[in-house]
Amino acid sequence: MERVVTPYEGSGHRPWDDAAEIPAPLRLHRTPVSPSWVDYNGHMSESCYLLVFGDSSDAFFRYLGIDEQYRESGRSLYTVETHIHNRREAAEGEPLELSLRVLDHDAKRVHVFHEMHHGETGALLATAEQLLVHVDTNLGRSSEMPDEIQHRLTAIQRAHAALPIPRTVGRPMGIRR
Predict the structure, then answer these.
(1) Helix 147-160 crosses helix 46-64 at what angle (to 10 degrees)?
(2) Residue 85 to residue 153: CA distance in whole angstroms
(3) What is the pLDDT of residue 1?
(4) What CA–CA distance (Å, rounded) separates 127 from 129?
(5) What DSSP string describes 90-108?
(6) What does the mean pLDDT of the chain come to?
(7) pTM greater than the 0.70 cutoff
(8) Which of 173, 74, 72, 84 is nearest to 126 (CA)?
(9) How far apart are CA 50 and CA 130, in angstroms?
(10) What is the Cα–Cα distance from 27 to 96, expressed in whole angstroms?
């Protein structure tokens, strides 16, 4: 089976810089809606929203220093839970701009929140809340992140602490009566 290659493998990603100011939120990924993402209703298919949020996560991982070399060392971040809220449709070719904020983290887990906006109108198209876990891929279980990664997450979380918590964070799904 051929491995899926994300837009952020190799070069072109924004690396960590200890001296640089940390944007709040991070804006690390942009993409147009691919023709292959459009469904029979003429707009981006629901599974492709997750695909784009995943690419945004990959850009974030690279920003932290989690790249091919890191994964080859037997460590990675895995997604354990995702909650997507679809707000508006996106059509073929429309520009998407993603942002990400770190809500919380500990030695093994990272809680992030993505927003997908239309690149021209600024309209909020979708959000995704994710819980990620750091994994020792050789052992197949969770493990603590290296100090360097934890230090970077702490700096990002501190920079993002001034942002308001989105009202959908942590909300359960259900039919309200």
Answers:
(1) 120
(2) 25
(3) 45
(4) 7
(5) --TT-EEEEEEEEEEE-SS
(6) 92
(7) yes
(8) 84
(9) 11
(10) 11
The pLDDT score that the predictor gives to residue 12 is: 57
Phi-psi category of 136—alpha, beta or left, where left has phi over 0 and alpha has psi -120 to 50? beta
Retrieve residue 34's tokens. Answer: 């691919």
Both tokens of 164, joined, read 């308001």
> Alpha-carbon distance 174 to 177, whole Å?
9
Element holding 168 (H helix, E strand): none
Written as one string, the DSSP assignment of 15-74 is ---TTSPPPSSEEEEEEEPPGGGB-TTSSB-HHHHHHHHHHHHHHHHHHHT-SHHHHHTT
Q: How far apart are the first and last CA of the chain?
A: 47
Q: Is 125 exposed, middle or buried (0-12, 13-18, 19+ CB in 10 A)?
A: buried
Asked if residue 6 lies in contact with residue 13, where contact means CB atoms within 8 angstroms, the answer is: no
Q: Which amino acid is at 120?
A: E
Q: Strand, coil or helix: what is 157?
A: helix
Residue whose structure tokens are 């449709």: 89
